[in-house]
Amino acid sequence: MKLFKFLLPLLLVASCSAFSLDALFSSEDKAEELPAEESAVEELDEEVDQEEESDDEEEEEEEDELESLEEEEDEDEEEDEEETIEAVALEEEDEEEEEEEEDEELSALEEDEEDEEEDELDEEEEVESVALESEDEVEEEEEEEDEELSALEEDEEDEEEEDEEEFDLE
User: Fold this and answer.
1) CA distances, 78 to each of 8, 84, 167 (Å)
2) HSE of 147 in the Cβ direction (CA atoms, 13 Å)?
């Protein structure tokens, strides 16, 4: 049983893949293994350094990407602001043009109304002048008729006087 207690730990150690009996009994192998272990350590260090460098490069690339994205966002925001400013300016211009058009339409309507009023006044003046002319013509006609009547009356009076004179003469 004592032997079993002694062999069991040895068997467990021997079953482990990292342990070899050759390394336990030979000293030359140890000398050869040390440089191999150092080279393995160096390789691990190099791999770690490479990983760190690649991580650093990835971080720098990510930072660059973030910066470029931020710049793009800033540019997009500036473009959006410019577009909104242009849109507002265009809207203001459109509103001004509409106001000018409305003012022109109003002035055109006012001119039309003034023209219509002038036309109405001209028509009224024409009617008045025609009425005055017709009154003048009527007055002239009446005067002519009066003259003709007075001439006829005079003629009749003259004839009557002549008749009376003839009658008196007889």
Assistant:
1) 78, 10, 128
2) 6
CB contact at 8 A, 22 and 29: yes
pLDDT digits (tens, 9 = 90+) for 67-91: 999 998 888 899 889 899 999 999 9
The residue whose two tokens read 């002035």 is 107
Tokens representing 51?
């990983």
* Residue 29: Cβ within 10 Å count: 13
The Cα 128–Cα 123 span in angstroms is 8
Half-sphere CA count of 12, side-chain side, radius 13 A: 5
Is the Cβ–Cβ distance between 51 and 44 less than 8 Å?
Answer: no
For residue 145, name the pLDDT band (cuts at 50, 70, 90). Answer: confident
Tokens of 74: 């800033």
